[in-house]
Fold this sequence. Notes:
By secondary structure, the chain is an alpha/beta fold. It has three domains: 11-143, Rossmann fold, CATH 3.40.50; 170-270, Hect, E3 ligase catalytic domain fold (Alpha-Beta Complex); 293-343 and 435-540, no CATH class. 50% of the residues lie in helices and 13% in strands. It is built from 18 helices and 16 strands. It has helices at residues 22-27, 29-44, 66-76, 90-93, 97-108, 125-158, 188-200, 205-214, 227-234, 260-270, 327-339, 345-392, 398-425, 429-439, 443-449, 452-462, 481-490, 522-540, and strands spanning 11-19, 47-56, 84-87, 113-116, 170-174, 180-184, 242-245, 248-251, 293-294, 302-307, 312-317, 324-326, 467-469, 474-475, 495-497, 509-511. It is elongated and about 110 Å long.
Amino acid sequence: MRKTISKETCKRAVIYCRVSTKEQVDDGNSLVSQERICREYAHKEGYELVEIFIEKGESAKTADRQEWQRLLAFCENKKNAIDAVIAYKIDRISRNIADYSYFKVRLKKHNVNIKSVTEFFEDTPAGRFMENIIANVGQFDNDVRTERSVGGMREAVLEGRYVWMAPYGYDNVRDVRGKATIKPNDKAPLMKEVFESIAQRMYSSDQIRLIMAEKGLVNKNGSPITRGNFFRLIRNPLYMGHINRLGITAKATFEPIVSEQLFATVQNILKGRKNSTKNYIHERPDFPLRRFVQHPSGKKLTGYWSQGRSAKYPYYSFGLPSTSYAKQKLETAFLEFLSDYAFDFRHINVLKHYLEVAFKKHVQGQETNREAIDTRIAEINEHIDKLVKLQLDGGISVSLLAQRTQTLEKELERLVELLQERNEKTHDITGLLTFAAEILQNPQILWEKASFEARKLFQWFGFPQGIVFDGKKFRTAEICSLFRLKEIIDSDLLSVVNYRNGRKNPSQRLILSEEQKIYHSKEYWTKIAEDLRGLREMMSGDN
């Protein structure tokens, strides 16, 4: 028979210990001392010790502490029948009066009291008043430190120093006076190339992001920088040596990565202010295959105009004997080569089937992350409401309210941006399939009708290593995943089968062998969808 816990005969408690610095965690003395003193208190007061929650290296300025949140859930579980939370001091629980009051009310709903080992206050008006004073002391200490810290930051900005976390391409360092600032690191040339590439307007900004990822412009995990973070980087005035923080704009004393003129040019391009003329660096619009096609010997294709009796005639050439070709003849041969990668209804059906499957998995995987972001947004809004109420009750000053809400609102803004970025990343399958049906069924027509810039982009997208022409036919060492998919289907590695009675059905399915499972993975079809999105953006000319 299950034994029930009687709260009349046994008082049950949990212990909460916390240190906020890595040194305290490594040393261990603070945690050991807190736990020992709390255990002695529990034994002296007749509490049965049920659980100990240890928080290592976490600040009490925030409520988002893993062990503290686990403690709250543990105490709110009626089966655990907890009477008290024992802590060494009130500031171990929170150094924020609004948070402490919230925690106290929340625990009180479940008949759980907070017990401070080194601070005594009774459950009387005078005791509660003293408890509030003690809780305010922790917040006052934080506020004084924050005010001094902000004052030091303002002074640093006025001196032209950046004392926050260094952006990509910079390192946090100390100057000759030993004061914090930043300086360019080995990633700085990559960031400079990003700005220069955007200014040249040869590729879309997102295409430049992917190109630069191949050169090393990646995050800590080795993945390309996300679209949202990339645009935040290239809009950051720090790269031209301007600091905009704490309502102050100052000229930096550290070395800028780009000039003010280049930075301004890029900002105008991002805002859609197009230049009246476009510069084609090392390119000639009359010859789109130039430098893209190469001879088996490795020589790159060039283009030139030959003067006839009454007109000029365009030719391509490798600069070798008997390697000159009339422009129209060579480009017609290239169009025939490109038509080999045209999709028909079977390929579109395969694409549709697996993109829809991958999309459903993608959406399911994003729901958990979206719920976590939504929860945090709700917590921030609730915390701001508590701060406003506390200020109206005279608990904090207007200036302190503004300072704290500003920090919370910045986090809120980042979370909203993250949600928007996730929404942008959610694949528009219908739109992608419509685009695929229009473009991939006739890639040769797409190339023929496209502008010079779009032709170049499409060529390198489809054939990342270029193509080889031996005078008779084209060949290539590498093709994009979309064209590779077409080859896979054509070679029957993926076989499309109809439903019963041999009737054609638009919702065809695929039968896969064991060695074909890679093409059934969500990652593979997500890559296909990303390629389609990239191709669609390139052909739209969107910067």
